[in-house]
What we know:
The protein is mainly α. It is built from eleven helices and no strands. α1 (5-20) runs antiparallel to α9. The longest helix has 37 residues, at 103-139. It starts with a helix and ends with a helix.
Amino acid sequence: MEFESSQILLAFALTLFAGLSTGIGSLAALLTKKTNTNFLSVSLGFSAGVMVYISFMELMPGAREVLSDLYLVLSFFGGIAFIAIIDFLIPEDENPHEVHLSEDMQERKRLKRMGIMLALSITIHNFPEGIAAFMSGLRSLDVGIPIALAIAIHNIPEGIAVSVPIYHATGSRKKAFWFSFLSGLAEPLGALVAMLVLFPFWTPQMEGVVMAAVSGIMVFISIDELLPAAGRFGKHHLSIMGFIAGMAVMAVSLLLL
């Protein structure tokens, strides 16, 4: 299948726009006070709601259209296993052989580790999203533009999810911004890989496997990292309200787009 250079450039531009929207979310790190743990709790719950909703209401139904139930389940839990292994390989900050740290220092280390873990996981799941956005843009701008907008909208709270814990852990707005911003670059990188490597072999079935695996990754991160941290750094009901708000915002954005 042949595409004109203008089609390729437009599809790549859409993917770049979607990926870099994480930087919008990261600006939240510049607007919140370091001691605002309630905002931290709500924002983490909000991001978990976004990830869980988009996993089960958009990605999984789309994957089910092209995969059998067996491959859908295997792909979903394969994604969970993949990110769980990464989680296991990242060393814990607390070492029983080290000098005992104050509770504040322990919380800072937990936040920093969580922020790095989130940046890594979001980078991983942004990569196939970039492929999907790029391929959709190549097929039709009528399809590519809404998909890029939807991805951009849900990348904003993902940017918050990365930047806020990094900022609260390090006190550095610059680090918070760049961790979040750079995680979004995986989407245009995914577009480049699609263009140079995967495009000749890309099939609807491959896309379905990737999307189901991405769903598993996002659900694991929400349950293992976001929600526990949201409850720990704020009132329980604040994190739950943030979670529900995240699902509601994502639902409205998908309905409108």
